[in-house]
Structure formats: C-alpha cells, structure tokens
Amino acid sequence: MSHTVELLAVGTELLLGNIANTDARELSRELSSLGLNVYYHSVVGDNPARLRQAVELAKSRADILITTGGLGPTCDDLTKQVVAETFGKKLVFSEESAQSIRDFFARTGKAMTDNNLQQAWLPEGCTILKNRWGTAPGCAFRSGNNYVVMLPGPPSECLPMFREEAAPWLMGLSEGVIRSRTLRVFGMGESRVEDLLRQRMNALTNPTLAPYAKEGEVELRITAKADTPREAEALIAPVEAEVRSLLGDLVYGADVPSLEAVVLAGLKGRGLTMGTAESCTGGLIAKRITDLPGSSAVLKGGVVSYTNEVKQHVLGVPARLLEEQGAVCADVAAAMAQGARRVLGCDLSVSATGVAGPDSDERGNPVGLVYVALADRERVWVRELHLGGTRHRRDRIRALGANHAFDMIRRYLDGKDPEQL
Amino acid sequence: MSHTVELLAVGTELLLGNIANTDARELSRELSSLGLNVYYHSVVGDNPARLRQAVELAKSRADILITTGGLGPTCDDLTKQVVAETFGKKLVFSEESAQSIRDFFARTGKAMTDNNLQQAWLPEGCTILKNRWGTAPGCAFRSGNNYVVMLPGPPSECLPMFREEAAPWLMGLSEGVIRSRTLRVFGMGESRVEDLLRQRMNALTNPTLAPYAKEGEVELRITAKADTPREAEALIAPVEAEVRSLLGDLVYGADVPSLEAVVLAGLKGRGLTMGTAESCTGGLIAKRITDLPGSSAVLKGGVVSYTNEVKQHVLGVPARLLEEQGAVCADVAAAMAQGARRVLGCDLSVSATGVAGPDSDERGNPVGLVYVALADRERVWVRELHLGGTRHRRDRIRALGANHAFDMIRRYLDGKDPEQL
Asked: Which among A16, A296, A344 has the least Cβ separation from residue B32?
C-alpha cells in the first residue's frame, strides 16, 4: 500500500513571507523515511473560503492530508473548524485535552484566558495528538478512504508532535515497521557520491537508499520496512556495510547530528581539550563547537587573528614568516595552530587562514585558497584547500574551511592521517 | 486594480524535504511590498501530469502565476514545456538567450554541453527575463487575463532575477510606482512594537506599514504607491518620521541589512578598529562581523575565552575577581573587554559572558543571565541582560547577546549612552 500525502499549511504570515514554511520541509523528510510519498505542499492564508477549497482539493487528490497551523485561539481554530466541516465531523469537547491545557499553564506559570479552552473542542471520534510543547492539541482521524492529521504551526511544537504522536498513528495505517539509518559523509562532492551510488540506489527497493545534499556534506538515508524492528535492522545492515566499504572513512558517523558533534563527543570521551586560531573563518569554528551544549568541557578557547599583528603578538607567528610568505600559507597555518595550543593551554588546536573573498588578497592569492592545520603536543598537520569556483561564495568557503578543521580532528581521534582528504 | 498571485514551485527535492522552499518566502515579501496579494503557495514534483493540473488550477484561481524551478537541462525544461502548453503557446528559439548562455560558459570557463542551448527555447511573444547569475533564462507573458512569470529555482538566481527583471515587468502591469522603506528596530520586543503601532497600521492604506518579526529584532516596512517615485517618497516620509518619533533611537537604520553591517560601516567611516572577547557567545560576535566582506578593515581580532584560565592568562582578567565573583558578572565582562582592547590593539572592544544554557552555571546563575561590555581607551560600559524564559533557547540567548554587543557599539558611535537599553 503506497499512500500519497498532501501537506497543507494555514497562515497569512506564510503568504506575507514573514516566515518560511520549514514545517513542510521537515515533515517531508520524516514522511519520506516512513515510506510515504508527498505529492503536494500547499499554503493558504487565514481565510475560511480559500481554506475550504484547499481542503476539498487535498481530499480529492491525496489520501493523507496533514495540516499545519491555524490551531489555537488567535486564529479562532480556523483549521479545525473548516476541516471538521469538510469531512462532516462535529467538534466535541475533550475534558482530557482541557486538563492538558490547564496543566500547561500551571506548569509554565502563565495566565490562562478562557479562549484557551476552546482548543479542547476536537473532531468527534478523533485520536488526540498530545502537545507537550505548547497548548493546542492536534488530532488525527479517518474518513472513508481519507486520513487527516492536524498539527500546530510553530516548528517547536509541530515537529516533536509529528515524531512522537502523528508518526506512530500513521504507521498504524500500514502493516509492519519502518526503520532508518542516516550515514553522514564528508570529503566527497554530492555529485560524485551520487554517481558512485546511483546504480545501487535505483536497484534497491527495500531498504531504500537516498542521498540528501547539504552544504559541503552528503547524508545517505537507508530506510527499511519489515514486520519487526529486528527484521528491519537486518535489512539495513548489509546496505550500510556496502556503503561504508565504498566510501570508507568518508563516512564520519551514523545517526549523528554534525561533524562538530562527533568531534565534541570524541574529545570528551578521550578527556582531551581543544582550541582554535582563526583567520578567514573569523570565529566560525569556535561558534560551531559552542553551539553545542556541553562544549565547555572540551573547548578552552580561541583566537580570531584577523590581522598580522594579532597573529604575531597573540599567537606568536614569526614576523619574518608573515613578511616573507604572507598570511595565507601552510607555514602560517601551522604556526597559528601551534601558537593557539600554547597560548590557550589545550591538547589539540586547529587553525584556518585563507581568502574568503569576495576579492583575492593583496598578494594575489585566489578566493577559496585556504590552509587548515591541526596541532598536538608533538606534530602539526596542514591541509591545502582550493574552494574557488562560481558556486563558492564567502559563506560557503568559510563553512567548508570549518568543516575541514573538524574533519582533521575527527581523523586524528580515529588514528587516521589528518592531512588525508 | 488588485492582482492576486499564486507561487508554484516545481521540484521533487522540495517534496522530499531535501531543501526548503525559501523562494516562496522571499518572493512573498517582495510581492507584498509591490502591493500584490499572494493567495497561494504550491509545490509539485517533477511530474508532468501533476504539474499540468497545478498550472490549470493556478490559472483558474489567481491572475498572476509565478513559477520557480523546473527550468534548465537537468529537468528537461519541464516547467516551460507544461506552462507553454497549458497557455497555448509554442516554444521558439531565442538567439539572444542562446548567446547569453554561451557567454555565461565563456565567462565562467565551464564546458558547455549541447543540452544547455535547449534553455533558449522560450514561449512565443514572451518577455525574456535575463539570468546573469546562472544559465536558465526566465520569461514573462500575458495570456488573456492571466500573467505568467517563470523563474529558475536556485535562490541565488531566482531572487536577483525577480528584483531586477520580473518586478519591473510586474510593475508595468499597473499604473504608477511602488516604493518602500524598511526601518530596523532593536531593543523592543515584537509584541510591544506591534501594540504600539497597531492602531496606526490598521488606519494606514497608502502608505502601508507592516511589521516583520525577526530573531530579537523587528523590521517595519513602509510601502507607498504613487504616480511618480517622488510622490511615493513624499507619502513615506511622514510615516517614517512618525515611527521614528515613537520608537526613537531603537530604530537603528533604514534600508540596512543588519546591526553588524551598521556597526561595520560606522567604524569604517570613523577609521576605528574593534576586537572581541567572548565567553558565552563563543565566537559568534566575531563570526557575524566577519560574515561581511570588508570586515578586515575594522576587526583586528578576537579572543574566545571559554575557560577562566584563558580569561586570566590571555585577557588578563584578575584571578581574584574570577574567584570571588565567578566568570558571570559585570566586573569580569568589563575586564574582558578592556583586556581584549589591550591584547588586540584595537580602538573599541566588546565582550560577552553569561549562561547560555541548557543548565545554570556552577554558581547557580540562571540560564539567560548575560553581561555584555564595551570598552574604549577611557571607559567601559556594561549591560546586564536577563534573556531567560521558555522561548529563549541556547542559540537565541547567544544571538541576542551578540545583538546587544553590536547595539552598544552602534550607540557609542552615535554619541549615545551604550548602556541604555
């Protein structure tokens, strides 16, 4: 059974461009990995007539309708009213939901107004989707051959509710279970990864293997459907092994959020500390590691050395080196990393120096030439990167430079050569 | 004449959740400010039958259809084929577009394959929208009471093409001109700004005044329609003056991209340099200023002092102070800023120290308590911020801390008290 899905977002703020429809993106990813085909995304404003038409249309062209937004008191529960009406359902008061709403206000210490309890009116016979992240409950019901799921709009409520409440309900529509594993790849371009795997991807049906391109990275998601979790895992394992044997240690993790998260966990596990010395990345490496809770156990600090003075006086890069070779060269990258290690008193340090653009530097080094270095107590390693090209803008050059710095630490921790690309 | 618009995005990658439909968001903002009402966003995959139905639907329910994506050789120019067919147009070869495509490849040094020239087939009688940012030309035409605009999908092509090519064409559909001005506000919550201005916003029709909430900031866009640019400007001026008199120096700029861009321009104009000392923001302040081209003229460098050791040994914060008061206090913020100024040799420096969460610190300081300081040669100023609350996550606390640091410099450059909130 292959269900088709339409995602319908309700909210004038989307049509004004005040916010982007990120719910559609995130739900689409989740739905794909559940083996459901999303055929349409639609957005309408807080307008009952146009919403009614959109719901009728979705009813006619997809068998699962998932709405986001238009719940809650500020929009008079527009979505619930219109959807219930279109599918011929009455709204009935749910004492259970009312109590959850009262509990939410008690827990957060906010004042509850009466109209908040209007949210407890839900389509008769529906499955209530609990909202532990806000006040508006969601719901799910079947009507003939149609399945309907309603979720609140704010991503901080919509996405966890989908995962914890709606996805299990949707899975109940079909036999068996779905499991997926995401392998993350750094160090090979998107198109090369796809070329390498295309034949295999096309041949596979269960599990499926699908690539997702990200800035400078590729995610490969293996999704299997089976009667039991154990059987699904057994389907995934050989495909994972096959991908890993093709891509080797370009695969930096399975079901992990990012390179920096792998680095943070690796350093923590080994009781090691790190520091940064950043020129072209201008603080981005430190920023990315400190985005993560718990980074204070690992990061001692960093130096952003945007001028030669700071490279020389704070990091101890020799003046002669800067004069003779300029700031963008392998030796300066190495000296920056070693200087940061000494100044910050950390076990490992990484550095980046290069030309982020838009213009080449005063020595004529091209945009995209970046040196990234890693130093430990005994040695220093340097990668020379050529990140130029029309698609590589300043922000992408900086992001890739930071990725390489984390990749060097990752390889170091794995006992691999940090210079290897 | 009030036109209604449907935005139709074409691309399976959107339905898989591989990318978000940011074009819809950005175009919606642009269209609103042109006085055009966006009623629908739709997304379909690279499927001719479903695309044809979506185009028919848009034709019936909106008078302007704007498509994004599905141009170019990799998708066989799907959108162009289907849209032309639906509106009964033939595709004809445009030698002018073919030459632009050849020029693009000559300019970027890439190899041109034959299928690239297929992009030069365009609907008969259309206005060609030039693409100076990629290869696929766009087009615009009228068919009865319908207007159609086709743009490529990549945001780096779609958005500049809309602004420079499509918007003037759309403006030609109606009499007069549209002008808008965006005032950017920092230091007052979104809901308070809206409360303050709601009555005025509701009363205004030409110009209109519309707020856009951003993380920690508010944008106010004033949009006027008139026969000439001069008349439109004359309509905007009194509303701008009124908003400025209500919000005072919370308005940090008109038609400027960000606080850091205002700071960068201000420092450059005065020939001043800056540096940073960051604890809880972990490099974010330096990262944000170095996101901007030309920042090397202003930023000397920065220190990320994530441990007390680094605060003490690199920035010279007195050990006694750290022992007695801990790292999160006004005196440490001040000492960090002064230390950074000395170590980095800059005119002004900013610092941030606080608790970004998710947990309170070892002294029991609550999540969201942040001190931000600014030092010049003679003085130091400190702001104490309480950024806690359920909606303030780690990333938001860090972003707001950085905003305050930039706001302190902005006020300093304007001759205002940097401590004033």
From this structure: A16
pLDDT value at position B75? 67
Helix A48-61 with B48-61: angle, nearest 10 deg = 160
Q: Containing H/E element for B381?
A: strand B380-386
- Asked if A308 has any chain B CB less than 8 Å from its own CB, the reply is no
Cβ–Cβ contact B363 with A under 8 A: no
The reported pTM is 0.81
B6 within 8 A of A3, measured Cβ to Cβ = no
| ipTM associated with this complex | 0.79
> 3-state DSSP call for residue B228?
coil
Contact B17 A25 (CB under 8 A): yes
CA atoms within 13 A on the CB side of B211: 23
Of the candidates A31, A50, A344, the beta carbon closest to that of B39 is on: A50
A379: which 2 tokens? Answer: 């040695």
Residues of A in contact with B31 (CB under 8 A): 17
C-alpha span between A277 and B323 (Å, rounded): 27
Taking the Cβ of residue B367 and every Cβ of chain A, the question of whether any pair is shorter than 8 Å is answered with: no
Q: Specify the 3-state DSSP secondary structure of B156.
A: helix
> What residue of B is the nearest CA neighbor of A4?
B15
Q: Do B14 and A41 touch (CB under 8 A)?
A: yes
User: Is the previous residue joined to A238 through a cis bond, with omega within 30 degrees of 0?
Assistant: no
Q: State whether residue A109 sits within 8 Å of chain B by CB.
A: no
Per-residue pLDDT tens for B47-93? 999 999 999 999 999 999 999 998 877 667 799 999 999 999 999 99
Q: Which of A21, A50, A293 sits opposite B21 (nearest CB)?
A: A21
Do residue B20 and residue A20 have CB atoms under 8 angstroms apart? yes
Measure the CA–CA gap between A363 and A368, rounded to whole angstroms.
Answer: 14
Amino acid at B127: T
Which residues are A338's β-sheet partners?
none
- Give B227: exposed, middle or buried? Use CB within 10 Å, 0-12, 13-18, 19+: exposed
Number of alpha carbons in the 13 Å side-chain half-sphere of residue A305: 31
Residues 6+ apart with CB under 8 A from B320: none
What is the CB-side half-sphere exposure of residue A98 using CA atoms within 13 A? Answer: 10
User: Whose structure tokens read 């000395």?
Assistant: B342
If you write DSSP's letter for every residue of B63-93 in order, what string do you get? SEEEEES--SGGGTTHHHHHHHHHTT--EEE
CA distances A170 to A25, A38, A86, A167, A232, Å, are 18, 13, 21, 5, 18
Radius of gyration of chain B (CA): 26
Q: How near does any CA of chain A get to the CA of B415, in Å?
A: 27
What averages of pLDDT result for each successive group of 10 residues across chain A (421 residues)? Answer: 88 88 94 87 94 96 96 80 95 91 80 81 95 90 96 92 94 80 90 85 86 81 88 96 95 95 98 98 98 96 97 97 97 98 98 93 92 98 86 83 97 95 78
* Amino acid (1-letter code) at residue B305: S
Q: Which of A350, A402, A401, A353 is nearest to A376 (CA)?
A: A350
Strand order in the sheet with B208-214: B208-214, B217-226, B177-186, B251-254
Instruction: Give the tokens for residue B246.
Output: 């209500």
**Scanning the structure block, which residue is given the tokens 């500020």?**
A74
DSSP string, A198-255: HHHHHH--SSEEEEEEETTEEEEEEEEEESSHHHHHHHHHHHHHHHHHHHGGGEEEES
